[in-house]
């Protein structure tokens, strides 16, 4: 099968053109230094992958209470900004582009990391224990007040400005995978009875406030968003979520984001209430540039772009296993198979 579709450049807007359609998906690696500072090894790791049309950084926490996993990087201290400068310099020196993924995990944070209670739309605990830290159970989060929400929006803005100061080409707001922004967008986790709950318009309000405030700060052309219409992690899907995303995506159509990115592990998953795969649902509703993900191979990525099912193909696990993924695909070389043990090392 011809893979040429992957190597067509794409213009996102008049500020950003990508040389190919292959993007590196955001991949949490838990390898930052104490103080959540990016390391030289991380700069090398991203630098090795600069042939991607665009790299999206591992999710990066916007403030202390956003943390739910050990040793993830942050973007709220001077040391963190300085650390990220090494990463962006290396990627740019190698001819690549990189967006930072801005992260707050909401109720799947833990006070173990920051000493602060987790916050969420509603005070509903996520059942279970933290991955790799099995002795820690999730805590009941504090429901955010309207004032807290204003502060949070400002913290996203500060983080986005910090990312630009660190040399990133743009930011991807992490609105996916059951984390804070996603918790507002689903009925399972949003039981608010104020202007942030109960209706599609209210439930979309926080996400849109973050999108608009970050866009105003760094430019919509350098702002992207990741979303998960069909909840599959940390949240139970509810058929009523459909109306929320119908409304939310229509609002996004009125903004000119760099791209919209699906957040999912496996896009072959079908959701009755979405009428099929998450990617089909997004393509049917979103009119801008759509980045798909979730079990894509070079063949399925090229076929999807060729058929118009999506515009960009994000590659996660295969990019961990193959730092030279783009070159291998271009040269028709075999790919190394991903294994979870590969997460132990930053190659
Ligand atoms: C992820 N994923 C992920 N998603 C995200 O939005 N932010 C993140 O920081 C991470 N971190 C992360 C770490 C690891 C180890 C894995 C395997 C996955 C999800 C990722 O971006 C992608 O959606 C999935 O991996 C599915 O794509 P692949 O791997 O099938 O190409
Ligand atoms: C199930 C969906 C959630 C999204 C995932 C992001 C978090 C993944 C955490 C991966 C952690 C990698 C840690 C590497 C440590 C090496 C130990 C062998």
Automatic annotation (TrEMBL):
<protein>
    <submittedName>
        <fullName>Alkene reductase</fullName>
    </submittedName>
</protein>
<dbReference type="InterPro" id="IPR001155">
    <property type="entry name" value="OxRdtase_FMN_N"/>
</dbReference>
<dbReference type="InterPro" id="IPR013785">
    <property type="entry name" value="Aldolase_TIM"/>
</dbReference>
<keyword id="KW-0560">Oxidoreductase</keyword>
<dbReference type="GO" id="GO:0010181">
    <property type="term" value="F:FMN binding"/>
</dbReference>
<dbReference type="GO" id="GO:0016628">
    <property type="term" value="F:oxidoreductase activity, acting on the CH-CH group of donors, NAD or NADP as acceptor"/>
</dbReference>
<dbReference type="GO" id="GO:0005829">
    <property type="term" value="C:cytosol"/>
</dbReference>
<comment type="similarity">
    <text>Belongs to the NADH:flavin oxidoreductase/NADH oxidase family.</text>
</comment>
<feature type="domain" description="NADH:flavin oxidoreductase/NADH oxidase N-terminal">
    <location>
        <begin position="6"/>
        <end position="334"/>
    </location>
</feature>
<dbReference type="InterPro" id="IPR045247">
    <property type="entry name" value="Oye-like"/>
</dbReference>
<dbReference type="Pfam" id="PF00724">
    <property type="entry name" value="Oxidored_FMN"/>
</dbReference>
């Amino acid at each position: 099968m011809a893979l040429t579709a992957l190597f067509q450049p794409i213009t996102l807007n008049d500020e950003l053109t990508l040389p190919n359609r292959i993007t590196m998906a955001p991949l949490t690696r838990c390898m930052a230094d104490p103080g959540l500072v990016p390391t030289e090894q991380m700069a090398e790791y991203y630098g090795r992958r600069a042939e991607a049309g665009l790299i999206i950084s591992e999710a990066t926490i916007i403030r202390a209470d956003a943390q739910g996993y050990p040793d993830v990087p942050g973007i709220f201290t001077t040391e963190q900004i300085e650390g990220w400068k090494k990463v962006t310099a290396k990627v740019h020196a190698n001819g690549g582009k990189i967006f930072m993924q801005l992260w707050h995990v909401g109720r799947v944070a833990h006070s173990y990391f920051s000493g602060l209670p987790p916050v969420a739309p509603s005070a509903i605990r996520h059942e279970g224990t933290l991955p790799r830290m099995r002795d820690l159970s999730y805590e009941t989060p504090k429901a955010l007040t309207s004032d807290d929400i204003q502060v949070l929006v400002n913290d996203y803005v500060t983080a986005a400005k910090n990312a630009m100061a660190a040399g990133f080409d743009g930011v991807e707001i992490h609105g996916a995978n059951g984390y804070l922004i996603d918790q507002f967008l689903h009925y399972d986790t949003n039981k608010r009875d104020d202007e942030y709950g109960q209706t599609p318009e209210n439930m979309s309000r926080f996400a849109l406030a973050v999108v608009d405030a970050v866009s105003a700060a760094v430019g919509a052309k350098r702002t992207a968003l990741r979303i998960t219409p069909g909840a599959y992690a940390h949240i139970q899907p509810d058929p009523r979520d459909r109306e929320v995303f119908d409304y939310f995506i229509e609002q996004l159509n009125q903004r000119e984001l760099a791209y919209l990115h699906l957040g999912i592990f496996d896009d072959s998953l079908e959701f009755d209430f979405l009428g099929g795969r998450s990617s089909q649902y997004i393509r049917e509703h979103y009119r801008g540039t759509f980045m798909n993900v979730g079990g894509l191979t070079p063949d399925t990525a090229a076929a999807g772009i060729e058929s118009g099912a999506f515009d960009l193909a994000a590659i996660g696990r295969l990019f961990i296993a193959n730092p030279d993924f783009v070159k291998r695909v271009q040269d028709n070389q075999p790919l190394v198979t991903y294994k979870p043990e590969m997460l132990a090392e930053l190659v």
